[in-house]
Structure formats: C-alpha cells, structure tokens
Amino acid sequence: MSLSATDFDYIRTLVMKRSAIVLEAGKEYLVESRLIPLAKREGFSGLEEMCAGMRAKPSPALVEKVVEAMTTNETSFFRDLMPFEAMKKQIVPELIAARGGSKCLSIWSAASSSGQEIYSLAMLLRENFPALRDWRISLLATDLSQEMVARTKQGLFSQLEVNRGLPAPLLIKYFTKEGTHWQIKQELRDLVEVRQMNLAESWKLMPQLDVVFLRNVLIYFSVETKREILGRVREILRPDGTLFLGAAETTLNIDENWTRVQIDKTSCYRPGAAELRKAA
Ligand SMILES: C[S@@+](CC[C@H](N)C(=O)[O-])C[C@H]1O[C@@H](n2cnc3c(N)ncnc32)[C@H](O)[C@@H]1O
Prior knowledge:
Layout: H1 5-19, H2 28-41, H3 47-56, H4 60-69, H5 82-98, E1 104-110, H6 116-128, E2 136-143, H7 146-154, E3 156-157, H8 159-163, H9 168-174, E4 175-178, E5 181-184, H10 186-189, E6 192-196, E7 209-214, H11 223-236, E8 237-245, E9 258-263, E10 266-271, H12 274-279
Parallel strand pairs: 1-2, 1-7, 2-6, 7-8
Antiparallel strand pairs: 3-5, 4-5, 9-10
Helix pairs in contact: 5-6
The structure holds S-adenosylmethionine.
The site of S-adenosylmethionine (SAM) has 25 residues, from loops.
C-alpha cells in the first residue's frame, strides 16, 4: 500500500525538525524505500502502522532510527579527487608556511558519513607531509547519524568500499585485513576525533579551524539552513582558512561573505567577501 499524504507529511515534518533534511513532495518513494524495511524490522505490519504507533507514542529510539534511515550516507575514499589534490598541492603547503610558529593544524570533516573523507585526509597528510610529524594535528569527523559515527570510530571497510577511490599502495600501507573487511590502522584512527553532531543544532565545543570539508550535505537543506550553517562555519574558520563544498554545492546566492578560489579543476572558499579580502 502506498504512503498516504498524512503519513508523508508526518515523516517529513519529523525529519525536518530533527535533521533539517528537506523531503519535498515527490520524495514519497524515498520514504517508502527507506522506511518500509525499518517498519518490518521493528515488528510493524507496514509503514502505516509504524506512523500510527509513532503518533500515538513516539519512542525516541524509533524516531532516531527513522531520521537515520532518511539520511543518505553515500561517500568514498578521495571522493571527487580534486579537493584532495588541491589540499596536497596548495592548501597544506600554505598552512605549513603560515603555521610554522604554532605548529598546529585543524581540519573538520562535517557530515563525515562512514569516515572515508577524514581517513583520506589523514592518509594525505601522512603520505605527503613528513614535516607535520611533530605538529599538533587535529582531525575532527562529525555526523548526525550514530551508526555512521560508530562506523567511523571503528574504521572498518568492506572490500567494495576500499575498491572505491583508494589507491592499492595506501590500502597495503594503512589498513589491516580483518576477515572479509579492511580496518584502518590504529595509528590513523588515533589521529581522528569522531563525534555525533547535528549541523542544524547549536555547535558545542568547536575549535578554530584551518580547513572545513562540508561536502554533499548542504544539498539536503533549505536555503535558510544552508545560510545559517555557512555563517557558523565563517565564525570558526580562521581568516586564511579554507572551506570545501561538494561539487554540486556553492555559497553563491546563499551567503555572499565568501570568496571563491579556483585551484586547478576545483574551487574552494575563503571567509570574507571578495572586495573586502582585496581591500584587507
Ligand atoms: C552524502 S553524505 C556526505 C559524506 C561526505 N561528506 C562526502 O562528501 O563523501 C551526507 C552525510 O550528511 C549527514 N547529515 C545529514 N543531515 C545532517 C545534519 N543535520 N547534521 C549532520 N550531518 C548530517 C548524513 O548522516 C550523511 O552521512
């Protein structure tokens, strides 16, 4: 039986309230494909019964499962490659030159999914910048989903996952085989702090940052939420810090207080409108 308009409305209001993810009209198929299996696993006859049960007595655990099921966790090692090339070629060398005094570097993978993004960055630093060995490197990975946070902490990836974007020499060097899976070595896991965090709620205990990877998550939010989040990123990004967004995302027409910087085939953003940065 297909999803009723009332149940769709109930789910989309719930998901919006808890995650800021917008489920527009036409996304009924997505709700069905994600939530029918969940309803069955939770012992309901279907989605209709689960929605009725939740309306009558919303269990926080089930609400969390529903919201998590509606997140899209697609990711891969060195996804889209170019931002990582820009980090290697320009951003990290510039930061090494600028932070030689403090020898501190902080990078945040916001909406990090199962951790491929932050571990790609950890490997990039280890492989290319031996000078950073005695620096204080802070690599922070956060995601809304508890399941993704647990997966990132564990750093365990299937054969299929390591086949996507991870060069074989890095697999051999930084992973150990655990049965049918591959686990990223403790040495790299120790570099990464992993936390659950909802980007749409207040941000607690956020450090000042040099680089933010905020990729492939703004697409799920309304313009107002995007603007709010980009504003908060500006507050914690150092003036010479860098923001990377996903290939389909931009600050343009959302928050004009950024300067777009082209590096080879990719672009990133620096805090401050272009004319103000030039005048500074
Ligand atoms: C498509 S993945 C992007 C992963 C990675 N950044 C990349 O580009 O490969 C989107 C992630 O955003 C997370 N997410 C969705 N809404 C969120 C929110 N309100 N706060 C934090 N993370 C959120 C999801 O759980 C999911 O893991």
